[in-house]
Structure formats: C-alpha cells, structure tokens
Amino acid sequence: MCITLAIATAGRSPAANLPVVLTYPTNGATVAGLVTVNMTLSSSIWWTQLYIDGVPQVAGYNPLTWNSATVANGKHTLGVRAYLKNGVTPIGNSSILVTVANSSATPTPTPSATPTPVAYFSTLNYWATLPSDSQCAAEIVTTPETQPANAAFNAIEPTSAQLAAYAAGGYNDTYVNDYTQYERVDGKYTGSTDMIMRWAACKYGIDENVVRAQGWVESGWLQGAAGDPHSAESTCVNGSFDALYNTTIDEPDGSVVSYPGGCYQSWSIWQTKVYYEWMTWPEIMQSTAFAADYRFADTRACMDGAYTSYFASSAQQPNTYATDVANYKNIGGTTYTDQVLWGCIGFHYSGAWYDSGAQSYISDVKSVMASEPWPQ
User: Fold this and answer.
1) Are 31 and 68 spatial neighbours (Cβ–Cβ below 8 Å)?
2) Which of 16, 170, 182, 293 suits 279 as a labelling partner, its CA being 20 to 30 A distant?
3) Kind of pairing, strands 92-100 and 74-83?
4) Are 158 and 287 in contact (CB under 8 A)?
5) How far apart, in Å, are the Cα atoms of 188 and each of 51, 55, 290, 342?
6) What is the model's pLDDT at position 15?
C-alpha cells in the first residue's frame, strides 16, 4: 500500500512563516506501507530529516518517503526536523502521532511482476514516469567488467552520512526550479562499469549510448580521472569547501592524486566540476554509481525545465532553452526530444545553451556515440 498526497510546496518557494509544518499524515492518522510525508516549508529550508520515535530514518527535502513496515504495528511518533543550507542544527521541527497498521501477510510493498530485462534504454519524454533504482537494477543483465581500473570504484555505494551531507548542501550549487531529480540520487547500485551506465540511463530516461559516449569523451571511462587543473587558491576553494586544494587525495583503487598549491576541479568518469558541486564530495570520486546517478539526474532535470530561471537571467541571453523545453513538453517527437537532450549535454560542458563551446562538445560526443570506441 502506498499513501500519497499532493506536495504542499515545490522547489524552494516560500510557504509559511514557520520553518516546517507537517501536512500529511495528520495527527492520529493510521498508516501502512510506504508513507509519503508532506510538509509546508519556509523558503530558508534546504533539507529535512524524518525521525520515528526519535530515530533518524531518511533525509531529503519535501516530500520524504518512509516505509512503515520497518517498525512494529502500533503508535509511533513521526517527526521532521528542518535545516538551513549547510546546516547541522535544526531550525524547526514538527511531530505527530501515527498508528502503524501493516498487514502481517504483506508487510512491505512488492512489485506485481518481475521486470523483464531491457535490451536498450532510450530517451524518455518530458516528465516521464521514471523507474526506481530497484526496477532498473532488475532490468539489467549482468555483464563482465571491461574496464578493470574501475572495479574498486564500482563496488562502493555512498554512506548514509554522505547522502545526508549531500542533501544538507542543497544538491546543486546553481539555483534550479525543481530539485526532484537531485533528491533521487543515492548511488545505490553496484556492477560492471557498463551496467552502472545502463542503470543511470534507465533511472533518468537517457539514451544509454549518450551516457557511454559522454563518459568516453570526458575520461575514457576512468572513474579515477581528475581533470581541470588549477593553480590558484581562489579557483580551488569555494567558500568553506577546501577539500580539493593543496592536498593529497587517496582513491579507492589505491591511486593517489596530489597537486601541491593547486587542485583538480573535475572528477569521475563524467568529470563533474566538484569546485561548484562541492556537496557531492567525496562520493562523486569514490563511487561510480553515485557519479553516474548525479550526472544524469542533472541532465534529466535540465531536460524537464529545471534551469528555466538560470537561462532567463540576463547573463544567459539570448537563448532558446525555454522554447526548446516547451516544444519537447507540448509536441515531443525525436526532433524536439533530441534538441533538448543534446542542449543539456552541451550545457554540462559550457554552461550555456548551444553556444560555440557547447556545439563543439556535442559534436564530439555524437562522433564518439557513432563509432562506439569503448571496450565491449
């Protein structure tokens, strides 16, 4: 049984004078199975933590999903604490009393059928219903490792503390209009390098050869790759984040990356620029699955219009992002889908919408996609 209600707020829009107010379930409610906990949040809130009887369960933003089958039937206190960006001390909390009444015959939600392995994952439509981690995992057949250098990275999943810190950091350094896809990022998958790429392609509805080709252009499929060297402290330290600067970094495979007096800004197969996306460190370097998860959550968010405010700024004019997304949403089809998909791939490189840098990068990725030079 899955209980859901409409989300009280979206993105980071102000909703109330109080930092956090639970809107669902209501006090005294009876719940079962997966419970979607909804809140009204003030505009200052960046992440929330759900507690059951004082014990932390899940962290994220709004809503939070809790599996009530993890506790015994009966009365329990459900509470939520709210935090500022980078905050570790709650600035507000709200709690209610609920009664858990799960059926002993069906204590946890189960799929109605075992998913069938999928031969190829293609790009999905605007705001498509995206599959879960577990569904994607079940749809991928096991394949041998073709890039042995990634084996140690492929076996690592982020810790709960790392994911909480990622949420506390706000998921993304650039303001976006919707954080839904970033909130889904957890890196909870292990397998060969290609299996991980297919898992991310499935999870975010991105053509799997686009995932492969972009990874090849960025690093030649090396999760331990460090790129974008900088020698100035100002280009290595972002606010209080200085983990990259003038330090020695130990990687899971035993490699050591060092840059005395400088840093490497970009990490992982897809070279996410950690100088900006500092809240992803160190799991973006340690875990191939997290790196893939984050990179293509960002791509899907871009495709579904999350960068509308970013591209509406005077610094990004003129551009056709809003028009392209509208066509993708309202008309669809291969032409408009590809226009948005490739615009978002180019945006990862240049930060702009089809500028010269983006177009050159798109051409490189398309060329690699056509030739498929990666190990198979």
Assistant:
1) yes
2) 16
3) antiparallel
4) yes
5) 22, 22, 7, 27
6) 33
Across the strands, what pairs with 40? 21
Q: In this structure, what token pair is assigned to residue 362?
A: 């798109």
The token duo for 45 is 């809130």
Domains of the chain by residue range: 2-100, 133-221+293-371
Q: Would you report the helix, strand and coil content of the chain in percent, each value rounded to 5?
A: 35, 20, 45
Q: How confident is the model at residue 2 (pLDDT cuts 50, 70, 90)?
A: very low
Query: 56 near 76, Cβ under 8 Å?
Result: no
CA distances from 198 to 107, 122, 126, 299, 337 (A): 31, 10, 20, 15, 19
CA distance 51 to 96: 11
Q: How far is CA 278 from CA 163, 179, 215, in A?
A: 13, 16, 20
Task: Return the structure tokens found at 40.
Answer: 């009204």
Contacts made by residues 94-98, CB under 8 angstroms, sequence distance 24+? 94/20, 94/21, 94/22, 94/39, 95/22, 95/51, 96/22, 96/25, 96/26, 96/27, 96/28, 96/29, 97/27, 97/28, 98/25, 98/27, 98/28, 98/29, 98/30, 98/31
Strand pairing of 20-24 and 64-67? unpaired
> 152, 252 in Cβ contact below 8 A?
yes
Q: What is the mean pLDDT of the chain?
A: 88
Residue whose token pair is 């340690």: 286
What predicted TM-score, i.e. pTM, was given to this entire model?
0.71
pLDDT at 13: 35
User: What's 2-100's CATH class?
Assistant: mainly beta
**Cβ atoms within 10 Å, residue 369:** 18
Give me the residues paired with residue 99 across strands: 30, 75
Q: Where are the beta strands (DSSP E) in the chain?
A: 2-3, 20-24, 30-31, 34-41, 47-52, 55-60, 64-67, 74-83, 92-100, 226-230, 248-250, 256-258, 263-267, 272-273
- What letter would DSSP give residue 313? S
DSSP bridge partners of 121: none
Rounded to whole angstroms, the Cα distance separating 171 from 6 reads 22
**338 CB-near residues (< 8 Å, 6+ apart):** 123
